[in-house]
């Protein structure tokens, strides 16, 4: 743009939200999909994120992204699956599977674009699988984003 020129009448990418987990590590049972809890709202333009659930305020296409860090203190973590659920059912997943190689920590990230209706609900679930059937945790961190979810309505 030339100096002094402005752009007007552009729609916003709203509603939009970004939340993270800062309230302590969340224990999950072995090989059991567990709803990830989020407590730290960085922004939520429509006040549509509550109780770890995004409730769609207006129909349209949405971009949803999540990153989840899992940890097992015994170093027996072998698989992590992170799901995006809509209305209680998985619609997208990412799977890190190390087979017979066990690790202390895994991180999974995914983005998916979805056509959503008003009042649809979006939640994040994680499944951690350990070699010794022990519990593990979804990591919380107050100083950096290790477990988070964000979304926004796509301008059409």
Keywords:
single chain; 156 residues; mainly beta; 7-stranded antiparallel β-sheet; 6-stranded antiparallel β-sheet; 13 strands; 0% helix; 53% strand; elongated
Note the run of SSEs as H and E: EEEEEEEEEEEEE
Structure classification? mainly beta
Give the amount of beta strand, in percent.
Answer: over 45%
Helix content: under 10%
Overall average residue pLDDT: 94
Largest sheet: 7 strands, antiparallel
β-strand number: 13
Low-confidence stretches: none
Task: Give the CA-CA distance, first to last residue.
Answer: 23 Å
**Shape assignment:** elongated
Query: How many whole angstroms does the radius of gyration measure?
Result: 18 Å
The total of helices stands at 0
Oligomer category: single chain
């Amino acid at each position: 743009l030339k100096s002094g020129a402005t752009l007007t009448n552009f729609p916003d990418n709203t509603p939009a939200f970004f939340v993270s987990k800062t309230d302590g590590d969340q224990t999950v049972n072995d090989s059991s999909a567990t709803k990830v809890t989020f407590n730290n709202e960085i922004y939520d333009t429509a006040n549509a994120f509550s109780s770890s659930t995004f409730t769609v305020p207006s129909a349209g296409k949405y971009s949803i992204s999540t990153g989840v860090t899992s940890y097992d203190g015994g170093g027996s973590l072998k698989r992590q699956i992170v799901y995006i659920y809509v209305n209680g059912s998985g619609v997208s997943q990412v799977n890190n599977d190390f087979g017979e190689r066990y690790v202390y920590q895994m991180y999974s990230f995914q983005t998916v674009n979805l056509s959503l209706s008003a009042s649809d609900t979006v939640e994040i679930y994680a499944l951690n699988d350990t070699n010794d059937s022990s519990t593990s945790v979804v990591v919380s961190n107050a100083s950096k984003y290790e477990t988070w979810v964000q979304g926004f309505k796509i301008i059409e």
